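Researcher: If only I could read backbone structure tokens as easily as an amino acid sequence. Walk me, if you will, through where the backbone shape changes along the chain. I have put the entry right below:
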Amino acid sequence: MTTDATQRHRPIPSRPKTGWQAWEATTGYISLHYSPDATLKVEIYPLGEVVAWAATFSWSQHQESVRDRVSLGDVLTSLWQQIETYHPSLMEAPDAKTRRPIGYADEEWLDQPTFDVVSRLVGVTETAFHGQWQLVIVYRAVEKPEDRVQTRLIAQNGETTVGGRGPTLRDACRALFTTAAVRFRQFVLKL
């Protein structure tokens, strides 16, 4: 049992190093305090000559979405702004406020090794499937670490579908890359 005095002196967790880690912490907090089904979903897809990003966050009976943004940071910042607009009391507790995915610069959304893997995955996917693809990343704060991040490549109007999973975004993207390597090779050799 905690008293008011204990609550006041409890240390506040430090701010996560990257925006992605802040989203993981936020999803975990919402999963623990509001709804165990809290889910962050990110989509990457070609939109004309550029790569576009979409994101959806859902918990309980709530869902907020943002589409057609130019970067991971842009889409996740916009998504959080929308959540705070429509659900302002969601992260009011002091320990929750430090987890919020706000105030991250463009280069602070992923650590460098994760950024490299995601960038390589997007580049190779575009080279192989020429504008007919979609990458999906799903994060849930589940007990089994290897199931927390799930990735999926959908290409050629659903004819090609492969997936990967792992405890981190980097691990899940690497697993997807490994699983999709045969498909990449098939379609690159056709060029």
Summary: The radius of gyration is 18 Å. The chain has a mean pLDDT of 90. The chain is about 40% helix and 25% strand.
